[in-house]
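Running this now, will post back.
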Amino acid sequence: MLRLIVSHTGRSCLVGALMCAATMSTANGSESWTLYKSNDWLEIHYKELPNGLAKVKGQARLENTSTKSVINVLTDTESIPEWVSNVQSVTLLAQPESHQSLVHTKLNLPWPVADREMLTLSCFSQLGEHQYILKVRSVETKSGTMSRLQITDIDINWVFLEVSSGLNITYIAQAKLNGAVPNWIANMASLKNTKSMLDSLKIRLSESPILFTDWTLLPGDCDGF
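Update: finished.
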């Protein structure tokens, strides 16, 4: 995601970058999940971590779609700002492997929170015959190499389970927003943005074909990622 490295837009695993804009935490907690909101196809849960920030989990049940379709939407970097709130731009910098993407994301966040940016590496793999996972992690940069505050400690997993009726998605995310933002503001933004992103993803998928001939990001080996 650094324009200092490259400056072209393409297909990449955004994954989290998007959802990262509001998912803030730095460690795993042992507390049980608490329900935030639910409806007939979506549940949003959270757990408070020892540092007071929230880890968020979204579970979506989508009909008539596939993992390929979701990956196609998530890797279409040119279109991401059209359907993901607060995203100014997403730039594919490199693909170290056919199943990995290095992405730079710029976020325009609501006042009084200052704008942020993220540098993330994504990795996509197949867990079983009908199950896949997309992992998104932050990439460290040298101090002063980014023009905005940087979101760090990003840890996002998208797990896709293909079923007879469509696709079950589990999205779990945490990150460190950095800067002087109270925990309660960060946590509320995290929950609202996660729901908004998954709502928008459902709409986006309804506008796309059910299946695509080729993967826009090939499944590969993400062991140790």
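The chain has one domain: 16-206. More later if anyone needs it.
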